[in-house]
Fold:
Amino acid sequence: MRAESVGGLLGAIVAAAVLGAAFYYVPVGPMARTMQPARVEVPPTQVQTVPVAPAPPVRGPVVREVPN
Structure:
C-alpha cells in the first residue's frame, strides 16, 4: 500500500469517528427541544432582617500646623 492510500483510510476512519461523536453528543431535530429541564416552583420564604449597628464615624487625616 502506498502512503497516500493509508492516509486516506486513516482520514476516513477519523472522519467517521468525529461524525459519530457529533451525533452522539448533540441531539438532532425535535429531540433537541425536549431536553430542557423542568421548572420547579419554590414557594417564597420570609427572611428576617437583623438590625445592624451604625458604623463608627470615619476620622479624616490629622492636619498639623507647620511653622513658616
Q: What stands out?
A: Residues 3-25 form the longest helix (23 residues).
